[in-house]
Amino acid sequence: MKHLAMLAIRLFWRDLRGGELNLMILMLCIAMMCHGAITLLEYRLDDTARQQAAEWLAADMVVAAHHPLPANWQQEAQALGLETAETLEFSSMLMENGQMRLASLKGVSDHYPLRGRLTLTSPDTGTPIAATHGPVPGTAWIDEEIAASLQLHPGMSLGLGKKQLAITAVLHHEPDRGMHWLSLAPRVMFNLQDIAATGLVRTGFNGHYQQLFAGPDTAILALQTQIKAAMDDGMRLYNRYDSTSQEQGRFIFQLGRFLTGIIVIVSLLTGWGLAMAARHHARRHLDQTALLMALGMRPRVVMVLDGLQRLLLLLLASIPGNLLALMMEQGVRYAAGNSLPTMVAITPWIILPSSLLYATVLLGGAVAVHALSSHALTPTQLMQRQRQRRPLLMGMAAVIATSTLAWLLWLRLHDLWLAVTLALTGLVLSGLLWALSAGMTRLLVSLGGYLPWHFRLGLHHLHRRRYSAGLQMTGLIMTLFCLSITLTVHRDLLASWQNQLPQDTPNYFAIGIQPEELPLYRQMLLDANIIHHREYPVLKGRLTTIDGQPVSRLVIHGAQGEAALRRELNLTESTELPSGNRITQGEAWQPDTPPLHASVEAQLAEQLGIHTGSTLIFSAGGLSLEVRVDSIRTLHWQDMTPNFYVILSPGSFTGLPVSWMGSFYLPEQRAGLLQAWTSQLPGISWLPVGQLIDSIRQHMTQIAGLLSELMLSAALASVLVMWIALTASSEERRREEYLLHVMGIRHHVLLRARGIEYAMMGAIAGLITLLLLEIVRYALLARYLDLTYPGPMTTLAALPLLGAMLAYGISRLQASVPSTDHRA
Amino acid sequence: MINRGESLAITGSSGSGKSTLLTLLAGLDTPSEGEIWLDGSPLHALDADARADLRYRTSSFIFQSFLLLEHFTALENVMLPLEMKGDSAAGQQAATLLTQMGLHERLHHYPRQLSGGEQQRVALARAFACRAPVIFADEPTGNLDQRTGNAVMDLLFAHQQQSGTTLILVTHDLSLANRCQRMLRIHEGKVVAVT
Q: How far apart are CA A252 and CA A256, in angstroms?
C-alpha cells in the first residue's frame, strides 16, 4: 500500500506538472468556493436568526408563568455558569397630575436584559441612546406615551402603589417587547427590588413572572432538561432555538431557499463541468491505464491508484477552494455594506468538513463512469480506444449522475424522497434536452443544403458529432438556463420584497380607538396630511370550541396554535380582506353573506385542525359568538399592515363593544405630532413599529447585496462550464481541422466553419433554454419561493442570439487551426 | 511451444492477425477459444487479476506506437515499471538503462521533444527495466527508418542474448525476422508455416 501511495503521489505530481489536471482543479475550486461561501453564509444566517430570536426573548431561554417561579432555578443556572435575570410584568392604573392611565408595569432585575439592548430617548437630542442595564432601585423609566398622557418627564416622581420612584429616563425600546406587541399598554419599567415596597403584590395579584437565562448552548440545554422535568402546566418555556417570529421568519426562509437553490444550480453546473473535465482527462489517460495494466497492475489496483490520485486532487483543490470560499464570503458581506450588525462571528473552518464531503461526492460522481467503464476493459481494448457498449455506458452515466445529484440534494434538503424525485426529474429532463438538441441539429442540417460552403462544413461537423454535440448542447442549455433563471429570479425576488415594504409602509399602529373617537382620529390624520390605511374594528375574543370540541381537549401541533389558545385573539369584521390576503380554500364573501361567517389564517387553521365548514365558538364581550368558517387564507405578516388570524363577515359585531385599530406612516421629522395627538386622544395607544420596519429593510439591503455577489459566482461558474463544454472535443476537432487543412481547405474557412458550428450549438441551446425558462420560472416563483409570478420576460427572447454569440466568441478564443504540429 | 531464451518472429501480411496473436500471447487480450500457456500457467483460463499478476511476473511489451506517456519525461517513463515494484533506486536504474541506450542527454526530455528512434529506445529501456523473462514486441521498428530500426533491433537482440530473455516479436520485415531463431508465418488468422 505504501508503494501504491508513493506511486500515486508521483503520478499525480506528473499530471499536475503537465497541466493535465488544470480543468478539474479549476472546476473543483469553483465548486468548493461557491458551496463554501454559501454554506458559511447559511451558518451565519442561522446563528443570526438565533441571535435575533434571543434578542426577541432578551435571553437565550425564558421560563414564564402567572405565579412566582422557583428561586432555585436561578441558583442552578448560575452553578452551570449561566447569566440570569428576572422580570415581573403586570397592569396597573396610574394617576398623576390629575390624569389616569392604564399602564403595563415591568419590574426588572439588575442584569436585565441578557440579550439585546435597552434604549432610552436622549433628553437633549431626542435620539435613541443605548443603556447597559435597567433602572436602578428607587428609579423608573417611562415611555413617551406615559410621559405625554400623565404629563411626566425625567426629574419628576411617579407613585407606584406605596412607593415613589424618581423618573430618570424616557424608555425608547426594550428587546422583548415584541413578544406581545399588539397587546401592549404604555410601559413603566422599574427595578424589581422595589416591588415589595410598592405593596402591589398581594392576594389576587395577577402578574406575569419570567426567569431569563443566557450562556453557552450546552449549559442552556442542561438547564432546560432540569427545568422541563420540574415545570407545571402553568409554566411556559421559550428558547432561542425554536422561538421565531413571523416578522423575521419569512425573509430568512426565502433567503435560505434561495441560497439552497443557488447551491443546487452551482452543483449542477460544476458537477457537469467536472464530469466533462474528468471525461477529457480520462480520455487523455487511457494510454496510462492501458500501460499500467500491461505492466501487470491489477485492474482493481489501477482503480485504487486512480482513487488515491483523485483524493490528492481533492486535497490540493480544497486549499484554494476553501480560501476562495472565505474570501468570497467576506467579499459578499463587504459588498452588502456595513449594514450587517447582527451577522454573528463564527469559525470559518466550520465549512471544511461539509465542503470536502460536497467536493468528494461531486468528484466521485464525475469520475465514476470512466473509472468503472475503463477498468472493465483489457489493455488492448483501451489502447484501441474501444469503449463499453453505448447503452451500457449511458445507463451507468445515468445511474451515477442521478445518485450523485440525489445525494447532493439530500445533503441540502434533508429530504431523501424529495432529493431522489428531483434528481430523477433532472435526469429525465436532461434526456429530453439531449433528444431535443439532437433533433434540432438534424433539422438544421437537413435545411442547410443551400447554404454557403463554410456553413455546410460547420453543419456537417455538427451533424457528424451529433451525439457528443447533443451532450455539449445539454451543458450549454444548463449553463444558459442556470444563468438566466438565477438572474431573473434574483430580480423578481428583490422586486417582490421591495413591493412588500414600500416607502410609506405604516410605522405607527393606533390601538384602542373608541368608536366615538374615530372621526377625530381620521380628521387629525387628514389635517396633518398623513398617509394612513383603513381602520378595522377589533373585538378581543377567546376561542373556546372548535367543531363542538372544547379547545382544552385538543392536541395542538405548533406554536401559533398554542399561543392562539393561551390568549385572546383580535377579531375583526370586514367586507374585504386586507391587501395581500389570498384565499386558498373556500370562497370570498358576497354582498349578501350573513353575519357570523369567518375567514381563518392558513397556518393557524392547520395547527388547530380548522377547515372550511368548521364551527368555532369565541367568548367575546361577555357573549358566545358561534361562527362558521367559509374560507382559509394566507397572508404576509411582514407587510406591516394590520392583519388578523380571524376575520368575520360584516355585521358580526353588531351590539358588541368594539374598539378600532388604525395604521399610518409618520415621517421621522414630524414625530412631534404624536405628542399633540396623544393629548387630544389620550386613550389611544400609539405603537411605533418603525424600528421593526427598519430592521426588515436592513435585511432586504443585506440580502440584495448578498444575492448580487452570489449571482457573480453563478455567472462565473456558468461561463467556465460553457467554456469546458465547448473545449471538451477540441483535441479531436483540431486533428480533423489539420487533416482538412492538409487537404487544401483554407485556414480562415476552417475557422469560420468552427465558429458556425459553435454558434449553431449556442443558438439551439438558447432556443431550448428560452422554452424551458418561463415554465420553471413560474414554478420557482409561485410554488417554491412563494412569490407572485410577474409574467414572461420579453428580454429573454434574445437568449438564442446570446447563446450563439457566446459560443462563437469562445470559438474565436480557442487555439487556431494547427498548421505544423498535430501531435499535441 | 516457445522455449525459454528463444527468439521467435511472427510474420505475415497486414491484417493477417499477427498483432492479435501477440496480444493474446502476452495476456493483453482474452481468446474466444483455444489455450495459451505462459510460464506453466493457463493464460486462457485466468481472470483479469490473475492475468495481470502473470504479466507482472513474466512479461514486458514493446508497442508499435511506443506508448510513452506524454506528460512523463523519458526518465520517468522508464522509471514507471520500477516504481510499480516499489524500487527505491528506480531513478538511478532508469538513468543507467537510458544511458546504455545512448540517451544520457535526453533523460529529462518529454516524448514530444524526442525523435521517433529516441522514443522507441525509451520504450525499449522501459521494457528492459521490467526485467521480465519474456519480451513481446509489436512491430518495434514499424514507425522507424531502416537505419534507426536496425539500431533499435541491435539493442533488443543484444539485451535478449545477454539476459537470456525470451523474445517474441511481430514484424513484416523479413530481414528482421531472420535474425530470430524461429519464425512463425500466419495468413488470415491461421499459422501457415513454422521454421
A: 6
- Can you tell me the mean pLDDT for A504-512? 82
Q: Give the distance from residue B99's alpha carbon to the nearest chain A alpha carbon, in angstroms.
A: 22
Q: Does A604 touch chain B (CB under 8 A)?
A: no
Q: Are A194 and A137 in contact (CB under 8 A)?
A: yes
Pairing of strands A597-601, A646-648: antiparallel
Residue A192 pLDDT exceeds 90: yes
Whether residues A378 and B48 touch (CB distance < 8 A) is answered with yes
Of the candidates A192, A231, A262, A220, which has an alpha carbon nearest to the alpha carbon of residue A31?
Answer: A262
Closest residue by Cα to residue A336 from A692, A757, A736, A708: A708
Mean pLDDT rounded to a whole number for chain A: 79
Query: What is the rounded average pLDDT of the residues A114-140?
Result: 84
CA A96 to chain centroid: 49
State yes or no: pLDDT of A820 exceeds 50.
no
**Sign of the CA dihedral A258, A262, A264, A268?**
positive
- The interaxial angle of helices A286-294 and A299-335, nearest 10 deg, is 150
Half-sphere exposure of B150 (CA within 13 A, CB side): 5
Pairing assessment for the beta strands A569-573 and A646-648 based on DSSP bridges: parallel
pLDDT at residue B15 greater than cutoff 70: yes
One DSSP character per residue, B17-62 reads: SHHHHHHHHHTSS--SSS--EETTEEGGG--HHHHHHHHHHHEEEE
Q: What is the pLDDT of residue A498?
A: 64
Give the 3-state DSSP-derived string for A716-768, with helices as H, strands as E and coil as C.
HHHHHHHHHHHHCCHHHHHHHHHHHHHCCCCHHHHHHHHHHHHHHHHHHHHHH
The answer to whether residues A363 and A310 touch, using CB atoms and an 8 Å cutoff, is: yes
User: pLDDT at position A628, please?
Assistant: 93
Instruction: Kindly give the pairing relationship between strand A139-143 and strand A163-173.
Output: parallel
Residue B131 sits at the chain A interface (C-beta within 8 Å): no
Nearest CA in chain B to A293: B52
Nearest Cα of chain B lies from the Cα of A698 at a distance, in angstroms, of 55
In tens, the pLDDT along A441-497 reads: 778 777 776 777 777 777 777 777 777 777 777 777 877 777 777 677 666 666 666
Q: Which string of DSSP letters, residue by residue, matches A215-266?
A: S-HHHHHHHHHHHHHH--TT-EEEETTT---HHHHHHHHHHHHHHHHHHHHH
**Quick check: B89 contacting A, CB < 8 Å?**
no
Which one-letter amino acid corresponds to residue A557?
H
Average pLDDT rounded to a whole number, residues A92-101: 79
Q: Is the pLDDT of residue A179 over 60?
A: no
Share of chain A above pLDDT 70, in %: 79
Residues of A in contact with B76 (CB under 8 A): 10, 14
For cell 363542538, the residue is: A548
Which chain A residues in 20-79 lie under 8 Å from chain B, judged by CB atoms? 20
Pairing of the two strands A615-620 and A531-546: antiparallel
ipTM of the complex: 0.89
Total-model pTM: 0.65
**Window from A604-613, A624-633, A778-787 with minimum mean pLDDT:** A778-787
Average the pLDDT over A535-558 and give the result: 80
Q: Interior CA angle at A415 toward A413 and A416, to 5°?
A: 120
Torsion of Cα atoms, A334 then A336 then A337 then A338, to 10°: -90
User: Whose CA is closest to B96, among B67, B125, B131, B116?
Assistant: B125
pLDDT tens, residue by residue, B161-188: 888 899 999 988 888 888 889 999 998 8
pLDDT, residue B77, reads 93
Q: Give me the long-range contacts of A797-802 (CB less than 8 A, separation at least 24).
A: A797/A770, A799/A480, A799/A484, A799/A766, A799/A767, A799/A769, A799/A770, A799/A773, A800/A762, A800/A763, A800/A764, A800/A766, A800/A767, A800/A770, A801/A763, A801/A766, A802/A480, A802/A762, A802/A766
